[in-house]
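Query structure, 168 tokens:
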């Protein structure tokens, strides 16, 4: 009788241990346009940084990331989860200048602490309108702006010929 009770208790504990596992996946913002019929143009936004509002997120315990293979993927998953939770908990658009501390346990468990500054999107506009707004500014200033903010627009070194499109 005692053996049956012990076996029953052991089975119940094993079932509880295996059914209590929780897997959560987080994803940062991105735009994937797969359908070639959909035209996507880059959007430019300014970020209003509120230097008076520090934001943070901290795991209460080690979180298991079963989809991650290796320490680097566990770290990336934990960082994405922390950014997501920090943004949602603090009702902000972006964590500016995030710093984090991460601890590992085993192959795919991590605990993270993230701290940063609150950032809010403002003045969304297309890249076309952003560049167009520099029409009245000298070209050297425009080139410097493009070089520091979107260097992929400048394809060649040396002389860069930038012309503003005309509205139809």
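Result returned for the query:
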């Amino acid at each position: 009788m005692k053996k049956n009770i012990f076996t029953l208790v052991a089975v119940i504990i094993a079932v509880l241990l295996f059914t209590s596992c929780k897997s959560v996946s987080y994803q940062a913002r991105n735009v994937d346009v797969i359908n070639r019929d959909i035209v996507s143009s880059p959007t430019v936004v300014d970020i209003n940084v509120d230097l008076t509002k520090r934001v943070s997120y901290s795991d209460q315990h080690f979180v298991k990331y079963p989809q991650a293979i290796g320490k680097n993927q566990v770290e990336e998953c934990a960082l994405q989860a922390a950014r997501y939770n920090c943004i949602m908990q603090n009702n902000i658009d972006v964590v500016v200048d995030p710093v984090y501390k991460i601890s590992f346990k085993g192959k795919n468990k991590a605990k993270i602490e993230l701290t940063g500054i609150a950032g809010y999107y403002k003045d969304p506009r297309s890249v076309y309108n952003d560049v167009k707004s520099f029409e009245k500014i000298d070209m050297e200033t425009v080139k410097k702006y493009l070089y520091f903010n979107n260097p992929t627009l400048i394809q060649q070194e040396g002389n860069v010929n930038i012309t503003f499109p005309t509205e139809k």
